[in-house]
């Protein structure tokens, strides 16, 4: 009888331990998220595959995407170098740091400066390279491109886009040829999309690779040259948190398929991890015109302006639009009668304030020689003017 009682007690204790383990495991899984069995017996999906193994494979695949893109595109990415002569007067700088006096010309010293200043990427096996206009802004300097395998190619000719921060460099293809990059589509970009940047970071570290996401679209930004002598307002650019540094300018912004979806153009000086790129679709439009005519031609209205936001319009009791700061003499705007201080409200019945990209985007959709109707606000009156767009010289 006692032996039977002992057996019953043992069975009861065993069941209590099993039940306690099950309850404790369930509580640990639900409350603390700790999956003890997964450490030794990974969960399986419907096909009998280990989920833990799938997670490891997924991480490896994400890393492989970057590696594959870099291996594919790096031969198409180049570094842009500059060579220029700087003239300085050591006597002036020591005795006259503010330049109040002039000293004999024989005191002047010439210093040859040669350095990497930007990036670019090959778009043609015939030797065409895309970069930023501000990278090659100095018309008195000479430039070269350095390939992935450290071949130095002298730039024979530079074609600069008058409206975009874009330039095409012509070089003689080396004996081994050149590998063009594949151009993608920027019209379908989404915020949060994965991107990769390749370029000469800080003008020193060639073929630096950084990753991130598209963190904004349709931004406005001012881009400048590395010597601080040139700047340009750009509209409708891509914002990314992939590290873009001085020296990355002109390099490609890539999607996960290794296609160029933007041209890196600027970095924010006020914030970290904020860079900008020209959408490749805008670049492709310029390249199409260039391939047809051998030069960049864009419709040109001939004004410098500042956008008037809704808040600014309400505050100053004026309409939304663009405020004319300057009219280029002899331009389409000048011939149409537009004056400094005018506010252009509409173009061909399109309210400028309602258009993404503003006035610049509207003008880009027009053609050279096309006439456009302008609704202009001047001193409380609304005027209807007509301008015939010209090519920018």
Write up this protein.
Helix content is 24%, strand content 37%. It contains seven helices and 20 strands. It has 393 residues and is an alpha+beta fold. The strands form four sheets. The chain has a six-stranded antiparallel β-barrel with strand order 1-2-3-6-5-4. Strands 7-8-9-12-11-10 form a six-stranded antiparallel β-barrel. Strands 14, 15, 16, 17, 18 and 19 form a six-stranded antiparallel sheet that branches. It folds into two domains: 49-290, Thrombin, subunit H; 299-391, Pdz3 Domain.
Helix fraction, binned, reads 10-25%
| Mean pLDDT value | 79
The largest sheet, given as strand count, sense and whether it forms a barrel, is:
6 strands, antiparallel, barrel
Q: SSE order, as H and E?
A: HHEHEEEEEEEEEEEHEEHEHEEHEEE
CATH topology of the largest domain: Thrombin, subunit H
Low-confidence stretches: 92-101, 225-231
Total helices: the number is 7
* Strand arrangement across the biggest beta sheet: 1-2-3-6-5-4
Please identify the structural class as seen in this structure.
alpha+beta
- Strands, count: 20
Number of domains: 2
SSE arrangement:
Blueprint: H1 2-32, H2 51-73, E1 77-88, H3 90-95, E2 109-124, E3 128-131, E4 142-146, E5 152-160, E6 167-171, E7 194-201, E8 205-224, E9 231-240, E10 252-254, E11 260-267, E12 275-279, H4 280-293, E13 299-300, E14 303-308, H5 310-316, E15 321-327, H6 332-336, E16 343-347, E17 350-351, H7 358-364, E18 371-378, E19 381-388, E20 390-391
Antiparallel strand pairs: 1-2, 1-4, 2-3, 3-6, 4-5, 5-6, 7-8, 7-10, 8-9, 9-12, 10-11, 11-12, 13-20, 14-15, 15-16, 16-17, 16-18, 18-19
